[in-house]
Structure formats: C-alpha cells, structure tokens
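FORM 7B - TANDEM STRUCTURE REPORT

SECTION 1: FIRST PROTEIN
SEQUENCE AND TOKENS:
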Amino acid sequence: MNIDFTKMNGLVPAIVQDALSGKVLMQGYMNEEALAKTKETGMVTFFSRSKDRLWTKGETSGNFMEVVSIAVDCDGDSILVKANPRGPVCHTGSDTCWDEENTSKTGFIDQLRSIIKDRKNNPSDKSYTASLFAKGINKVAQKVGEEAVEIVIEAKDDNKELFLGEAADLLFHYLVLLEAKGYELDEVMDVLIQRHQKK
C-alpha cells in the first residue's frame, strides 16, 4: 500500500463507505499513524485537524466504524475505507455526513454473489451451495421452482417471519441459478433498465 503522505503535509483524504449499502458515509484525513491505528484496531481512526490528534470515530458517541477493507487510489494520495458503522455516523445524528439515510443492505447481494461464485469454483463437501452445483442445472432450477411455490403459499398467510424466510430462500437459489447458467445479475439489471427507459 504505497501512499504519498507528502502531497498534503502528511495527511491524505480518507473516504469511508458503508460496506453493505455502498453509501458514502463521511470523509476525514489520515496520517501514517492514523492509518496504522486503523489497521491495528480494526476501527476507523482519523487525524483530527481541529483537535490536532488521532481521533477514532465513535470514541465519544460509541458509534464506531468497523473496517472491512482499505484501498488506495491510483495516485496514492487518497484512501477508501469500507466499513460497517455501528450507528449514525455524523455528529448531527444523521446516518451520513451528507444527511442521507443509510438503511439499504442490498450491497450484501454482491458479497453473496461472490460467495456463491467461490463455492462453484472451489467446491467443498461441507457446502450446501457447492452440493447444488454438483447436482447440475436441473436440480438448481427445480429448487428455484420449489422456493417460488413456497413463497406463494406463505404470501397467502399473515406470518411475516415465514414469508421473509421463503423470500430469502428464493433470492438465494435464484442467485445460484444465475451462477449455474453463467449469467450475471447485472445482465438482469440491464434488461430492467432498458425496459424502464422505454416507458
């Protein structure tokens, strides 16, 4: 990780993005010591220019940000931290420093797609997902059909927990089917976008 801390007198901008939603949460500055502490503790730590010291986000409020990954841009002069926030990020109480809501968890779908792809490419006897791939496309498609019927049945009742459980099962098996077919979810999104643009 080559970072040029000399460009801005020892500081580089650090952008924090929610690892699940993809929403940009805040921007601060890090020096070498702040970056080292961030890596060591797993909690996002900045150099506070107003306090003239290291500042771990959440040290007062308890709303820490747990580090998922750290990347450096192509010029080596800014940092992107993906993190899981433990509560509102902004000192105003807002989810982000731009006063935006950060409630979506749909970014987890991309993580799940990665896991599914890994189970296909690196199968394990202990993996349910790998066992589906091993049984072939017909079995995967059959599972999607079974889960679709089960969600229809649950939709007629009024049990939120059971309905959401079946919805999760259907979504998971649908993603497995896409992977088994060698198609990307983005290709499905392209179809939806094109349909929307025609209206």
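SECTION 2: SECOND PROTEIN
SEQUENCE AND TOKENS:
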Amino acid sequence: MTEDAGDLDGLVRKRIRALRVAQGWSLDELAARAGLSQSSLSRIENGQRRLALDQLVTLAKALDTTLDQLVETAAEDVVISPTVDARHGTMRWPVKGDPGISVVRQRVTGPPPDNPARMRAHPGREWLVVLSGTAVLMLGHRRIRLTTHQAAEFPTMMPHALGAEGGPCEVLGIFDRDARRGHLPDPGPRDC
C-alpha cells in the first residue's frame, strides 16, 4: 500500500467515525443501519479490518452520504478564483455541488438590458438570492427589484436577464441541470 493510499484509508476511517458521532449514533446503531456487526464496524473504524468496497457503499448509504464524498481527498487549492466578464459586468465564482445543479456566486455591475430581445430563454429552473446590493430581474415584460436577502425562483424558459441597480450587487444563483446548460459561457452575447 502506498503512503497516499494509507492516508486515504485513515481519512475514510476517520470520516466514518466522525459522521457516526455527528449523527449521535453508537457503534450498535450504525452497525444495524449498515447491516454489519458492531465488532466489524469497530474494527473498520480502528483500522483493524480491511476496508471493502461493498462495505463502504453500505456505510455511505447508512450515513446519508455518497461513496464519492466518503473517499474524496482534500483539494489542493481551496481558493476559488472568479471568472470575469467585463463586457457584461459580471464576476462569477463557481461552487462545487451536485452534478445535477450548479451554484454560482456572481457580482453584477451593469444594469439589465433595456431591450427584451437581449434576454435569454432556455429549459430549466433558476433560484437566486441577493447577497448584497439591489438586483433587477427582468422576467418577460416584468421588472422585479430584489434587495439584499430577497430571493426569486423562476422557470428559465421565460425570457430573463439580471442587472444591478444603484451600484454593484452580489447574487447567489442555483441552476438545475437544464438551466446550467443555458448559462454556460459562450462567445455570443449573454445577459443572464
């Protein structure tokens, strides 16, 4: 076993124990949920028993997590750098999440488009909350003003665009899988 594999082995064992303790479960409770004996689970947590893939899958389910999350190694760089789109007055920080959704923190500096033809429509749903400042959501023919801590949810098949009012604003947006495709960077004009 390599040193890295040994580190991962120890990390997974610590996670199993930490998740169990965080749930307030005894060894007996988690063992029952995972279909293992209490002594087997104890030996897994203490490194006295080999970690088997089938047991890890079962333990991940019992701990209400995924196998990927259970064995995920720490990222080398925890700092997320934004991508800047000066043309549209936005700055985005992608946030890792479920493969079916995308979470983006975005700084918006420009106003929304005054021409409805510049709004986009695509399949999916979007949810957003204003973290700071005032955002203007153009949704079809409606102009919706959102201040700090206000949120909106809407189907993205409706033409939409987002802008700032009275200075920059920061928005946290969550897109489902279909809406994410509509928000991927492309070389053409984009407003949302």
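SECTION 3: OBSERVATIONS ON SECOND PROTEIN
DSSP finds six helices and nine strands in the chain.
The first strand starts at residue 83 and ends at 85.

SECTION 4: SIGNATURE
Preparer initials: ____
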